[in-house]
Specification:
Largest sheet of chain B: 6 strands, mixed
Radius of gyration of chain A: 13 Å
Strand content of chain A: over 45%
Number of strands of chain A: 11
Number of strands of chain B: 12
Shape of chain B: globular
Structural class of chain A: mainly beta
Number of helices of chain A: 0
Distance between the termini of chain B: 41 Å
Number of helices of chain B: 0
Helix content of chain A: under 10%
Shape of chain A: globular
Oligomer: heterodimer
Radius of gyration of chain B: 14 Å
Order of helices and strands of chain B: EEEEEEEEEEEE
Largest sheet of chain A: 7 strands, mixed
């Protein structure tokens, strides 16, 4: 069964550094998402992406965040200048259809640790 | 805005015990409801879903019924196994919003002992 893959599984970065989290969505999916989960808290929506542009973003997704689909297969989340509070598990998800009753498929996540 | 409230964990049960994890929601539109499961070291997997009132989602012996009148979607299983040990997330997508982003509850850690 096709799956969403995320790399790396764990990223350790110094505060203030840039980090890029990578995702390969399921190949025929059209809608892409990033979520994050701070330890002990809810999984939170960050951003959705369709047709090479952001379709919705949350308040969390400020100017230090950006997303890109550079080559038609990868979907990346960049954090420009990391802060301690960016430490979290980041999940990528993809969906074939933009319908509320269709499930999103998730990767295994990248654990980001900011020192 | 939309929100999901689920039972605080952790929940510890013996094998073959009955499981209930409570989930209630608030939504501006008519949501679709989901349970996702996260096994240790893995990502979120869809467990079951229900898209309209009184629908029952079921999978792997788990069930949940969409109750519009009580805005609930409680997860149940009649006889849990050790392999069911995982974190369970209740979630919704709201037809009143755009892009159908998922709104999650905090997750409930279930541990099943042999």
């Amino acid at each position: 069964e096709p799956e969403v893959t995320q790399t790396p599984s764990h990223q350790v970065t110094q505060m203030g550094q840039e980090v890029i989290l990578r995702c390969v969505p399921i190949s025929n999916h059209l809608y892409f998402y990033w979520y994050r989960q701070i330890l002990g808290q809810k999984v939170e929506f960050l951003v959705s992406f369709y047709n090479n542009e952001i379709s919705e973003k949350s308040e969390i997704f400020d100017d230090q965040f950006s997303v890109e689909r550079p080559d038609g297969s990868n979907f990346t989340l960049k954090i420009r200048s990391t802060k301690l509070e960016d430490s979290a598990m980041y999940f990528c998800a993809s969906g074939l259809l933009r319908q509320g009753n269709q499930p999103q498929h998730f990767g295994d996540g990248t654990r980001l640790s900011i020192l | 805005g939309d929100s999901v409230t689920q039972m605080e964990g952790p929940v510890t049960l013996s094998e073959e015990a009955f499981l209930t994890i409570n989930c209630t929601y608030t939504a501006t539109g008519y949501p679709s409801l989901f349970w996702y499961v996260q096994y240790p070291g893995e990502g979120l997997q869809l467990l079951l879903k229900a898209t309209k009132a009184d629908d029952k989602g079921s999978n792997k012996g788990f069930e949940a019924t969409y109750r519009k009148e009580t805005t609930s979607f409680h997860l149940e299983k009649g006889s849990v196994q050790v392999s069911d040990s995982a974190v369970y997330f209740c979630a919704l997508t709201d037809s009143g919003g755009s892009n159908y982003k998922l709104t999650f509850g905090k997750g409930t850690l279930l541990t099943v002992n042999p």
